[in-house]
Amino acid sequence: MDKLVRANRVAWEQASTFHIEQHDELLEEARSSWQLFPREEELLAPLLANQPRVVHFQSGHGLDDIALVKAGAQSVVGVDYSANAAGAAQRRAVELGKPCRYVVAEVPGVPVKDASADLVYTGKGALIWMRDINAWAQDVARVLRPGGHLFVYEAHPAVPLWTWDEDEPRIRPDRSYFAESHINDTFPANGAREWQWNLGHIVTAITAAGLRLKTLEEYAEPFWRPGDGTNAAAWSGRLPNSYALLAELPSD
Ligand SMILES: C[S@@+](CC[C@H](N)C(=O)[O-])C[C@H]1O[C@@H](n2cnc3c(N)ncnc32)[C@H](O)[C@@H]1O
């Protein structure tokens, strides 16, 4: 494993202890209130109608896996290099009786069979941890069956530029849209290195791996807001904060 990726993994293992500490709350959320975003549900509805076998790259707390199963997925394999995250997600799935299985492994290099997934689902703070976006896209293409789909719902690559000032949006003087990486200074995994794949990098990697882009939408609303009530002006509707991407591995 790359030295920087290994250091990030240590940070994530530490950050992911909250999945264990908050087991009861997360279990209750998974059982009763957790949902995919409305636009995610709309974009995924035609795929979930066919009861796909899902592989979730960087599955984290796994609440989205329970939501995917409730929405129609036949099964989910979650892959995450944090044993704390994968273990806690597995315990929740077992307690809820949902067909989700978790594997502790690095992405890319996902230990599932070639062409075994109908849908690769990922995002919500995932792609920034990829050291090599082309290797990631090739791994997606490898695990998808012909005709299978990749779905990403992710922070917009411009997000690292925005300050959290509440009076008006500002651009951080220490950040560049075109930087290779920066150090995370918020939550979680504070101190870890994030790689800045912009939309050009991501779309080029996906199409170079053989997938066909079907949908790319940018949104003003961030996929995540801090729980302390911070309401940055950069999140008020004028700037991009998240995006969704759907791509298909052609069957011909
Ligand atoms: C911000 S969380 C988001 C995950 C998930 N989408 C969610 O909403 O919970 C990022 C996750 O990626 C995992 N991760 C980061 N880099 C990884 C890598 N190279 N291989 C596998 N897992 C990774 C971390 O352990 C963490 O659980």
Automatic annotation (TrEMBL):
It comes from the Bacteria. CDD domains: AdoMet_MTases. One of its GO terms (biological process) is methylation. It holds the Pfam family Methyltransf_11. This is Methyltransferase family protein. GO terms for molecular function: S-adenosylmethionine-dependent methyltransferase activity. InterPro entries: Methyltransf_11, SAM-dependent_MTases_sf. It comes from Kribbella antiqua. The keyword Methyltransferase applies. Residues 59-152 form the Methyltransferase type domain. Keywords: Methyltransferase, Transferase. SUPFAM superfamilies: S-adenosyl-L-methionine-dependent methyltransferases (SSF53335).
